[in-house]
Amino acid sequence: MADPLEPLTRLPGVADDAAAVREALTTVHNHRANRRGWPATAAEASVRAARASASLDGGSAELPADGPVDDPVLAGSLRVAEALGGLLSAWRSAPRQALARLHVLAAADLPGVTDDDLGRPRLDAGVGERLDALAGLVTGGTSVPAPVLVAVVHGELLALAPFPTATGVVARAAARLTAVATGLDPKGLAVPEVGHYRAADEYRASVAAFATGEPDGLARWFAHCARAWQVGAREGLGIADAAAA
What we know:
The chain is an all-alpha fold. The protein has helices spanning 14-30, 33-36, 38-56, 72-93, 95-107, 127-141, 146-160, 167-181, 192-198, 200-212, 215-244. 47% of the residues are buried.
């Protein structure tokens, strides 16, 4: 059976961008601070990712000096970040269950959200089918380079918006899970969310282009994601440098 994502690798720039992302992440993982001390640097990367992800969805990035986080978007994003390691096995074998759990964590405190809304995809025509197709890709239905699959997972969830709330936080967390699961960023040391945040206008414009399904739009999204991951790798290097100082 033909790989459904293989044509994407032939879009202009995609193969070179995928190689550049891999090289940038290899540098982060080879940093001396990440050889033994990676749990601490990964934890810092996770918090930075959660803050940037919350900001992209209109939440606060500010952590209180003491006491609980009172911004509901940030609180949900931090819960998601804390839970990702425990969801890795589910993501590899039952991605739809993992997505439902991500939504529960991300949206629990949002205004107007009820318990019946949490973890339940929209019932609109085509939503379930597209989620099933995405799950098939994540569980072995493609052999494209990991950066391409990560971008597809991220873009498809943003474009589809399978849940009525917390779309961005869920999509970025799923992309992060995919990067870990595929071995692209197995320890979660990069912070691509910072790259998306710093280019927020292009982030939104390029995912809208992705949603059209046109080759130029797809290439634009992949190029943006590659830049974000390279920014995220530099962020990870900064974390490692600080840890080694």
